[in-house]
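Continuing the series of single-chain predictions for the mutant panel. This is the parent chain; the variants come on the following pages.
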Amino acid sequence: MRFERCRMLFGDENFSKLQQASVLILGVGGVGSYALDCLYRSGVRHLTIVDYDTYDESNRNRQIGSDNAVGMKKTERLALLYPGIETIDVKMDKKWVREFDFSPFDIVIDACDTTPVKIELAKRCYKKLIMAMGSAKRYDTSKIEVAGIWKTHGNALARKIRNQLKKEKFDRNFTVIFSPEEDKCKDKGSCVAVTGAFGLTACSEAIKRILK
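Parent structure:
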């Protein structure tokens, strides 16, 4: 049986909770694609992904689905690899976040790269939110941490979001995955050990929250 070992770990009642849960993943690149893979393999049936991008050659070092798919839409490719998921092919911006209905989802995993979108998401659905911070420029997975946004440290993107939320007088808390590891390069160099681990951590946090 495909999910036999998941049932052994979680028990029948908790596994049923996973199967009934609805999770939205925003961005399915180096972080989000691993969150998708982990949740799918763990038995979560109701998965929706949002992305608008296509694969290019530079994605192949870190993104699930990118091999032999250069030029293909990420949503289309992942729908083939993970039958049954729902896809939304759209470029996320602040307007989209404001207008989108988040109510059907139990968990929202933010794996997008756009700071204004992340800030708007925090304001719209902080209670459901698991947000991934910057995972590029790093290669040490032992540095990855999970905390509330106000307890993050040593991460430029997290600091930027904290400061902007303070300016907007938003003081609510939400879960963040981040790494205080010092940048190892100036540009967007990345290692799948870290980007993938961010996604797997997001999956773990989602599972823990669903089972509560």
